[in-house]
Amino acid sequence: MAEADAPTPEGGAQEALSPKERRRRARAARAAAAPARAPMTPEQRQAEREAERRRKARVRARRRERERERARARRAEQPAAEPLAPRRERHPGQQKTRQGVVVSDRASKTIVVRIDVARRHRNYEKVVRTSTTLHAHDEREDARIGDTVLVRECRPLSRTKRWRLVEVLERAR
User: Fold this and answer.
1) Cα–Cα distance between 16 and 13 in angstroms, integer?
2) Are 129 and 116 in contact (CB under 8 A)?
């Protein structure tokens, strides 16, 4: 690298090389100085790769075994931990139930129920009517469009279904 910055025998300075060009030339010089490797067949290259992988696997296995030994030694010198308290029993919450009207029964074992809500507005005290739809599981497929049904919350049954049909309260005429 010092040769690149040194003046040439003619007395003039050699062109200034960028750091990238200096690195490239240094790599080329090292590659030229290294002993040339004989060309290998693909099978030989594959065998070399597999041998290197086996060597690395042995190194990893030895390191893991040492780590396990250290962990066993640490556990042996620590005092025994006190037993954990028994887990609390699960008390499931009360599931929500909603009453609504079936607006669709086209899907297999699924109904779409519209829940109508009428409530008084907080500020203006006007009655505001809103509705939401939810998908409910209808195992026996006995609900039809227009029926008034009772649905209960349950675990997710599909991407959209989180309710089950409890009963059909009133049939549509």
Assistant:
1) 8
2) yes
